[in-house]
Amino acid sequence: MSEATTARADASWVAGLWLVIALSTMVRLVVAGTTGLGIDESYAVTVARPLSWSYFDHPPLHFWMAGAMTWLSGDTRAMVVRLPFVLAFSATLWAVGRLGHLAFGARAGTLGALALACTGVLGLTTGTWVLPDGPLVLCAALAALVLAPMLFDDHTVAHASRGRWMLAGALLGGAMLAKYHGALYGAGLLLFLLTTAAGRQQLRTPGPWLAAAIALACTTPVLWWNAQHGWVSFRFQGARAATTTAWSIAPFLENVSGQALWLLPWMAIPFALALGRAVVRRRTDQRGWFFVCLALLPVGLFTVATLGGARGLPHWQAPGWLFVAPLVGRALDHALARGASWPRAWIPVAAGVWVALVAILTLQVATGWLGGQVAALRAPVDPTLDAFDWRALRDSLTARGIDIAGGVTARSWIQAGKLGVALGATTPIVCACDDPHHLSYREAPAGYPAILVEHAQPWKRGWRPASVALSDRLGPLDSLGAITLARAGQPAVTLVVYRRYGAALVTQAVYHRSRSISAPAANRAAANAF
496 has which bridge partners? Predict the structure, then answer.
């Protein structure tokens, strides 16, 4: 093939990358605008105001992004607060495509970005929702892209750029400001430098050490806030991943199956194969080994930990699978170069099925249309109602003459998040629970507000209404009636409103007793949250 023909082919695949980004962005914007905020999203939007140097659950970056959008717009609507996360993943697709292009060619880069866009946990949730993973993978992908041109060059020391290392350090710092996973990317990069001859040469230059210093400096807000609060965030996250002494294969198998489901099974298989082949070829495949090093620690660490009895969550490995996408693109490119026909069928089918699944899920969240056919998706037990906003609640309370200016009490951090989004940025939300997460570190009214709103969930085992479950904490509660919120004209969520009476206000000191809860106790309380 002549150079001119190759250049034209590369240009068409570069254009294809922009098409992938545009179509993916359009789909994710539709999802962002037609579905409500999920549990974690609602909580993030609620505790993001006022801004804090860091937070109980995670480093601050995604909270800052959500809080900034709320401050700029004065609104907590899903489309508003999700917009920067949608755009961040579009930039991530570009960075991953460019990485694949630099490493393996334009066609491989575009196909890798397409494979990434067609995954579930990355292509949809990370790419749309208000989660720490969005800024995490963006910063990590950009850092890898900054370093790749010199690390892929055999004359790496001669072409080393101190400026590139400093920029990469700032981006890795951004990753660590988004999620603690960011440290694993730094460790993966160090693994690559230690295990390659060119990398060891780089370690003899100031660049990597400047990058490490800058990345660590970026985490100052996280370290400072945690030092002021007993390192609670580190204790909480450490307890979540802690193993037990009961070694078992069952949690491991469950976790691996969960990863496959989150990635989507027809995507998980090529991702796993591409990663495995690159590991085997380590000595002869330096560029492939670069992506393996960035992927291996997030994927391997959280998967192996489940052998110790900790079930973990299957999406914890997703930030590692991000860097397997260029390897999948290379595998597809090689298959096409050999004349294999299966990629020409598999690629459009994978993309089409992804769009179809996203459409089905989006329609279910917005309308509940599958409830007539599937009992498990029928309100009020439908799990997709977690992404149903309670926005109509405010007007219902106003119509009943219920004053919420003094704030509203919720009975769990989950319900507090939903109420915070529904009632707007100016309504204080207080959590009457043993596990309030970051809610106990916010400025709050001196005691629990007089109005309590709870999500009635009598189908849950052990559920008791707030008038019974919280009487010792709040005193007698006077029911002001129930409010039923409708989805697509059908009853979906029932909220019960109470007014406190006959008891002195609980003091701020009592409210803040939850600050001393241990991380393991917080975990147990979260597992039993209403």
Answer: 454, 482
